[in-house]
């Protein structure tokens, strides 16, 4: 470092636009592990599994907690456990690989840097997820970080954790049960018909809202917004223009098809109960 | 599972433990388990997958607090041991992080609900030997396209289990116990519970949007492929059922023919005996066990026909509910169009 008197702190901003998507299962898992942690541990640490999508986003799909010991200056991680769980998980789903690690608690601590180093030995650029179970600042915050090395000339100084955008993404199937996932207790799973009812109510509410908005604009109570107006007109015009008779025929045909199926299934059931009566009533002479 | 009260001796508690446990009334699942099951089944569909359920058995509630999936098993000898190893390894690891280590059952995925097969019953019996109460959770990932969460908790009814253990499925025993095909499987209502932390997180992270994807799925007008598959399976099942019926017919016809033969033979014997008595000789016995027409015919087991009947009724139910939903959608369309 005898080159110049002034050495510049090399600070590499994140060159790739890395972002992460996390599935709610991971959050659930982390919270569950946090609730079950041993008494002396303040936070829980674990591995994140997932995959890297072709556009560079990290897709975090699964996680498992790894027992660890943390004191003021030392961190000990159960590496065997980590490898065991990894191999077990990969037997079920070989496409999921390590993409990073998580810890509960707000912000990044000193011990986290060491753990991050360990994980960067496993994969190239691990993502560090913090889940704030303590609800500091009065809100639930989940943040994802990647570490960037700060170097002074040739020497490594420190690692800086830079935050990357995080997205909560849900698969459709999970969305369905989402209402029950939000409450602390749900007495029963919603049946199909109840789901239909709820959906129709929502549709009705949406239509009502749109009506009100249009009325308000016409009366001059609300300033008209061109984009919304265009949306509304697009939606209304997307109803296919079929003549009433053709439409009626369509609807009636479908109705009749469904009725036919209903009839067939009722006949089958009658047949079943008859057959059963005959079978068991048959006496051996 | 119950801790001994200090005033009673261990023997007393053990004795009362043997008494009939309260019947299982509800299965309480945690949201975490549901998410895991959904994820595993949708990832591997259309292959059928299974996994283990862990939890606690408390009174009349069976709590399921965690689960882990099983790797897809190839048909190979050595993989059997590997499967058992995997299970032990997972249980050990989970125990280290304070997860309930108690097996309470298993889950499996299904396509359109054709899960009533003999293997299910055998698995149940296997589990029942080790655990007092176990459930099987069935999840149907194909229903997710229609916006429905198809999760069911099943267990075998007790009367059925007794019969199966003794392996008697003929008509008399079934009539005695008054067991019909409805009584084989019992469906148990499911309750969902979440820890407060998790529900706080979820409520915060995912604001209540007015409409979500499941609404779009439910209002989809094209349920035809689904119905078609249902009908296909239904007709296959009906074919199987009619085959079973034919087996029974065959059996009854043979039985009546055998009885006619027996009667004829008996008449002949009696006539012979009369002749012999008249001639002063010893009468011959009226029964002859060595004669093949006296051999009792084995009655075909009714287990298969019961299972098939179960499947058929399941398909019918599904068709009914689908048709009902289609009606509502069609009427909705009609009303919208008129406006």
TrEMBL record, chain A:
Family matches, as CDD domains: MPN_eIF3f
Major localization class: cytoplasm
GO biological process, alphabetically ordered: formation of cytoplasmic translation initiation complex
Entry keyword Cytoplasm: yes
UniProt subcellular location: Cytoplasm
CC annotations in GO: eukaryotic 43S preinitiation complex; eukaryotic 48S preinitiation complex; eukaryotic translation initiation factor 3 complex, eIF3m
InterPro entries on file: eIF3f, EIF3F/CSN6-like_C, JAMM/MPN+_dom, MPN
Superkingdom of origin organism: Eukaryota
Pfam families assigned: JAB (PF01398), MitMem_reg (PF13012)
SMART domains associated with the record: JAB_MPN
PROSITE patterns reported for this sequence: MPN
Keyword terms of this UniProt record: Cytoplasm, Initiation factor, Protein biosynthesis
Chain ranges of the MPN domain: 20-151
Transmembrane segments: none
One Gene Ontology MF term: metallopeptidase activity
PANTHER family the record matches: EUKARYOTIC TRANSLATION INITIATION FACTOR 3 SUBUNIT F, EUKARYOTIC TRANSLATION INITIATION FACTOR 3 SUBUNIT F-RELATED
Complex formation: Component of the eukaryotic translation initiation factor 3 (eIF-3) complex.
Family per record: Belongs to the eIF-3 subunit F family.
Function field: Component of the eukaryotic translation initiation factor 3 (eIF-3) complex, which is involved in protein synthesis of a specialized repertoire of mRNAs and, together with other initiation factors, stimulates binding of mRNA and methionyl-tRNAi to the 40S ribosome. The eIF-3 complex specifically targets and initiates translation of a subset of mRNAs involved in cell proliferation.
Protein's UniProt name: Eukaryotic translation initiation factor 3 subunit F
From TrEMBL, chain B:
Entry keywords, A to Z: Cytoplasm, Initiation factor, Protein biosynthesis
Source species, domain of life: Eukaryota
One matching Pfam family: eIF3h_C
InterPro entries: eIF3h, eIF3h_C, JAMM/MPN+_dom, JAMM_MPN+_peptidase_M67A, MPN
CDD domains cross-referenced by the UniProt entry: MPN_eIF3h
Location of the region described as Disordered in the Swiss-Prot/TrEMBL record: 268-296
Location of this chain's protein in the cell: Cytoplasm
Main subcellular location: cytoplasm
GO cellular component: eukaryotic 43S preinitiation complex; eukaryotic 48S preinitiation complex; eukaryotic translation initiation factor 3 complex
Biased composition, class Basic and acidic residues, residue ranges: 269-280
MF term (GO), any: translation initiation factor activity
Ranges of residues in domain MPN: 27-160
A GO biological process held by the record: formation of cytoplasmic translation initiation complex
Record-linked HAMAP family: eIF3h (MF_03007)
Subunit note: Component of the eukaryotic translation initiation factor 3 (eIF-3) complex.
Function comment: Component of the eukaryotic translation initiation factor 3 (eIF-3) complex, which is involved in protein synthesis of a specialized repertoire of mRNAs and, together with other initiation factors, stimulates binding of mRNA and methionyl-tRNAi to the 40S ribosome. The eIF-3 complex specifically targets and initiates translation of a subset of mRNAs involved in cell proliferation.
UniProt record similarity statement: Belongs to the eIF-3 subunit H family.
Protein name as catalogued: Eukaryotic translation initiation factor 3 subunit H
